[in-house]
Specification:
Shape: flat
Number of strands: 0
Strand content: under 5%
Protein name: YtxH domain-containing protein
Transmembrane segments: 12-30
Number of helices: 3
Keywords: Membrane, Transmembrane, Transmembrane helix
Mean pLDDT: 78
């Protein structure tokens, strides 16, 4: 039984390793294209005489992704959705209550 379980774990590990290698290859390939495009843009700007230190830094600086902006955006969307639901409930329930009061009069 232990031998059979280890074969299953070996298959899972191999699948994970292959997936990691494929993901690494994709990231590496796309990153090279981006670097080449940036280098071409820098060459064109330099030929045109428009390249300065600030622009070069902005183009060559690696972009860092962060977890917090996405969380803030999601919280903002959640807050807007909750506010929308509350407003809709007040609008529609408020109208029916007013109509019921008018009918009672």
């Amino acid at each position: 039984m232990l031998k059979k379980d280890s074969q299953d774990w070996l298959k899972v590990g191999a699948a994970v390793a292959v997936g990691a290698v494929i993901a690494y290859g994709i990231v590496k390939a796309t990153r090279k294209k981006k670097v080449k495009n940036t280098e071409k843009a820098l060459e064109v700007l330099e030929k045109e005489g428009l390249l300065n230190d600030e622009l070069k830094n902005r183009l060559t600086k690696p972009k860092s992704s962060s977890f917090w902006p996405t969380v803030t955006q999601r919280l903002l969307i959640l807050g807007l959705a909750l506010a929308k639901d509350k407003i809709y409930n007040e609008l529609f329930s408020g109208n029916t209550e007013q109509q019921a009061v008018e009918k009672d009069k």
